Each structure stands twice: as C-alpha cells, then as structure tokens.
Amino acid sequence: MPSTSPSLRSISRALSALALLGVTTGVVTACSDNDSATGRSASSSASSPASAGAVAHTDKAELHMIDNDGHRLAFYVTKGHGPTIVLDSGGGEDASYWKDLAGKLHSATGATVITYDRAGMGKSDAVPGAWQVKSAVSDLKTGLRQLGLTHGVTLVSHSQAGEIATYFAEENPRMLSGAVLVDASLPPLYTDEEIARINAASRPQVDAAKNDPDKPANRQLISIAESYVPMHKAYHRATWPSTVPATVIVSEKTPFDGSPEDAQRWREAAATFVKQGPDRTLITAKGSSHDIPKDRPTLILKEIESMVDAQH
User: The domain at 10-311 falls in which architecture?
Assistant: First the structure.
C-alpha cells in the first residue's frame, strides 16, 4: 500500500473509522439554533411491546421481527393514522439513535413512526460477507411490505442511510411520498479521486477493527471496507427519481470537520444533488456537526413535519 499523504493523514485525524467508510455519526457538539436555507423549490412475527431496555422506540412501539433472505430484522412500529415515517440511522448505529425523536415525531404528526435495526445491529441478525447496499434496500422494502406499508412513506435517512434511501427511491418511487436526507451520503460526492482518498485514509482503522471483529461496529466497518470502492463507483451513477420530493439538510461541519477540502466537497455534493432535480430543498444546519439529529433535533422535527404536511 502506498504511504499516506499529508492530506490523507488530515482526513484520518478528522474522522473516526466509521465516519470515513460508513459515514456515521460524529461527536455531539453544542450548536446555535440558526439555520440557513437555499435552493428551496417548488413475513412478520407476532408483534410485542418493545422492551424497556431495547432501543429506539416510543412507549407505544411494538417490536416486529421480519424475515428476509435467511435473516431476521427488528422493526419498531408506533402506530398512528395516515402517513408513515421511517427513520433510518447512519453506519454503526441501530434504531436507538432515534429514541429522543421518535416519540416527539409521533406526537407532533400522529403518523405511524418506524425505526429499525439494520442487519448486524441491535436485535437484527448479522449477515456475513461484504456489506451490500442492495441487500439493505431489500431488508427495508421487505419490512415495509410485511407491515403492510406500501405507499405514502416519508423516509428520513441520516448519513450512510442516504445510500439506502437513494437506491430505495430509485427502485420503489411509488412507495414514497417524500424524503428528508440528513447530512446524507449522496452520489455526487463519490468521484474516483474522493473514493480513493477516503479508502486509503481508512485503512489503519479498518486494520485495527480486525483485532475485535465481533464488535458490531467493527464488524460493520470491516464489511463495508470489503466492498467500498466498487460499491461507491456504482453509487456515483445512481439517480434520485424526479417524482419523490427531497429535503436535504447538510451540516456546517460535515463528517469531514478538520479536513476543509473534503468538508467543502461534502457540502458541494449536497448542493449538486439538489440542483439535479425538481422539488428538492437544501438547508444548512449552521454550527452543527454531522450528528444533526442530536445537535439540532428541533430542526429535524420541523423539516420532517413540513415534508409530511406538504405530501398529505
């Protein structure tokens, strides 16, 4: 492997391993409440109450174990009326990431609110081998279908989940009424140059993770690294359907806080994505880290409510 350049070393210092490859949550920081907005355009098991110690649900959530392609996935459903909101967390996180927002969102909208553990996280079974985004899309689609939720879904996707959202929307546009993409990993970022920079900078963390491969976060990091380059070369060509409105919320600091060049590329990717199609809005969460749902929960709630209200 070639030696790491000063630029790559700066990326390594700026990011955790999962932020490099999985583009997951960063360190929670205190932030101001000011926002800026630009570009605003026109088969399931029997359900049971979620246990008190288990994860991202409201007090009314029910746990459904969904079977798909030989593994089981945990979906947490807080029943409501009318629209459905699905909260999808970033790399290395399970459904508990949304525990502070799910109940508030249900109370504010009256919607059915769903969180879930992706394969290998929380109560969901691990799947061996390299992480495949299309498998994650299949898991989400199967879960929603088995729950009888096949239209009118607002998808809220943070970080790495933006990749799942993009392919899900591309393949299943009629299931979605809209999406809120929260500092999401978006196709325009992944030029050959940026893929190479991120992949090279992540190698020390990936190698370290192999010392404890059974830890869920390490297991996910290793599996993502195995498929990272070809998967993101393909992702760069993915497109978002023009029929699905999207609000893109980008953090000011981005997951590349500490690497100004890469942080700028992240922000530019969000702006490019918004310009590529109709009914897309770009909002900058000023002062926020990549961890916008923790830093700026009021902003996230507001934008989800606005998307739901606009589409129903």
Answer: 3-Layer(aba) Sandwich (3.40)
